[in-house]
Request: fold
Amino acid sequence: MKHHRISRQIAVRMAVGALLVTLLSLLSFGMLDYRDRVQAARDALNEIAQSSAPAIAGSLWGFDTAQVEVIVDGLTLIPSIANVLVLDEKGVEVTGSGYEVSDPDRRLEKRVDLVYRDPVMESRVGQLRVVVDLWPLKVAAVSRLLPLLIALVLVVTALGAVFFALFERAVARHLIAISDYLSGMSLDRLDKPLALPPGARLDNELGVVVAAINGMRQQILKSHRELEDHRRHLEETVARRTAELRRQQAFAQAVLENISDGVVACDESGRLSFFNRAAREMPGIAQDDLPPEQWVERYRIFEEDGATPMALADIPLFRALQGESVRNAQMVIEQADGRRRNLLVSGQSMLDADGAKIGAVVSLHDVTEQKMAEARLLEAKDAAEAANRAKSLFLANMSHELRTPLNAILGFSDLVRRSSGLSETQQANLSIIHKSGDHLLGLINDVLDLAKIEAGRTQIERAPFDLADLIDGIANMMRVRALEKGVQLLVVQAPEFPRHIVDDQTKLRQILINLLSNAVKATEEGGVTLRLGVEPEPTERLILEVEDTGIGIAPEEQSRIFDAFVQSGASGSWQGTGLGLAITRQFVAMMGGQLTLTSEVGKGSLFRVALPLHRARAEDLPEVLPEKGEVIGLAAGQPEYRILVVDDNPENSLLLTQLLEHAGYLVRGADNGAEAVARYQDWAPHFIWMDQRMPVMNGVEATRRIRSLPGGDVVKIAAVTASSFKQDDALLLEAGFDAIVHKPFRPEEIHECMEDLLGAKLVRAALPTIERARQLPAQQLATLPEAQRQALVEAIVSLDRSCMKAVLLEIAESQPTSADVLGHLVDNYEYETILNILERVPSAADNP
Reply:
């Protein structure tokens, strides 16, 4: 039966196991016994060798070989000693006995040096070798184990039979029942518990097994029910998630199909696998399942220039497939009809959740229309630049054509005015001519300044300067104009207002002059106030406010009052171009500031300028050169300087020639650049004044040719130009000019330039005006009667020269020195200087 077979198998296996354990135990016992026997043999061998060595050594010392042989033969009689060998001190065998054991596992050898000792010395006479054969020891150990082995086999066999009988009855049949139950277990039979045959005891381990199996049955039933519930929930979740994924996939597909950019993707091998609607509708892009090596053959793709075929390695989709992140790559694709589309391509490789590459995708943005628009814009830009260049050329021509005659008008009027023997009427007429020329120059400068701003040729040139001195000079100048109209000009300065700053002094001066000039023009009663302050937050800013009590500006006009050539309706009769506020706003913006307006008709206006404040230290300011007097001539001992004046305009040439000849220079002229080159070769001048624009050959070309001639690198050449563009100055300096003077020029500019470049020493007249006036004792002017002081101020404001002369005659009676100096100032129309002097010196009424 089945349970008998199991019992026999278990009994046999247990018997075999017991037998193996017994054999291993006996084997261990035999090995331990053999080890003890070997150790005993080794100890005995050591003792025998050590005890025999002295006797053998003594016999060898006495050359008693027979005695040595007797001792060796005696040693071989000892059990287990297989071989004894005696060698002399040279290693030669003396005698030996026994048999040779060649197996290293059977032999145990002991070697002892033979040393003969006497009271005087000791000597090595040879060596003793003793070999023990271990085989008899092994045989003895095995012989001892055989009886034990036979007895143990008999005991194990008997115990196996007994165990078979007991196991068959108490365990095997119940195990068979459990095995049959487990082998037939299934979900439809789990409702029946495990039951053992009658008579089985369940109060032992067998009962524990039965209870565990029945508990496992209950747990399986419970788990099965739970799995069924989980399966149903999982099926519902999968169905819900599948629907959601389908919806998301449909949504993503709809997004891809409805975006205006084309989308093309390939799989990990590079085969084209996806084209959205925009890509499919792009002419020239057919939806083909192609590998990368066929892309170039199938699609006509070009580089950005539209002419160079694009290599496979440069195609954006292929670059993305190689792992490159492509951003805004440009390419051109040719349609079937031959037209070409410009595409802007971006893309990258696609990776799965594990980071493995699954393909690449690119977006195709059609920029053909944009490219066409850019081309049109470029054409428009080129046209605008051409127009701007034409405008700049026009400005240069206008500057030359207007400044050139103005240079003659202002220059000759100044020369004539400096001449002696002119009547007061002639002096007044010349003053009017000069003043009108200055006014016309101001109008021209306004037009050119606005044009330069619009052309982008105006730059901010920041440098440290004395702000207080600038404000003081402008206020004094504008105060004269205000007094002419009976209007007060007040300057209100905050304590924190800086003395020195870094900014564009020229543009700041023009801003203040424009604002104050407009305020004075607009005010008939009351006054004009210039407020100066600092605004600390959020960043430090310079605040300049100009407020007047004039006519004001209507709200509808305030939005366009800063436009070019626009004046407010109430001020339409003002003189001027209507450019002042337009230029002012542009300058303020270029300097990083803001210009605001607050105005009310009939009450006045307030213009507020806020500029970034850049403070400076007094030591940062450039050195202020002292004012120089009028040039009388060259100092004694100077060489005869030859000066060449090159100008196609006869009036300007004559003006410069007379100015230089009056100073004592030897002057010759030339009408154009070619003539200037010839004059240089014939006459070798020390200094050349070169006009820039001339027929036949312009000044720049003439300068280049002169520089290339012998001695041309040392001659000094200065440009006289009517250009108002500072950018042109750099070009002139690069062309070889040593200095540049702009028309209309002041005589002092000409003389200072020649002093600097030529090293000429000039004799100048003493300063008759400001310097002598400053030397007047303050106490002397302070004692002027208030009536005389006020009468002189009123005469100056009204420009009544006869009244001025009458007041000076009264002053001369008590203060002839003061009257002489003030009279010289009147003769030279230094009205502003007189007002400054009278304002700074306290009046007699102020002194106690």
Confidence is low (pLDDT under 50) at residues 569-573. The CA atoms of residues 387 and 393 lie 10 Å apart.
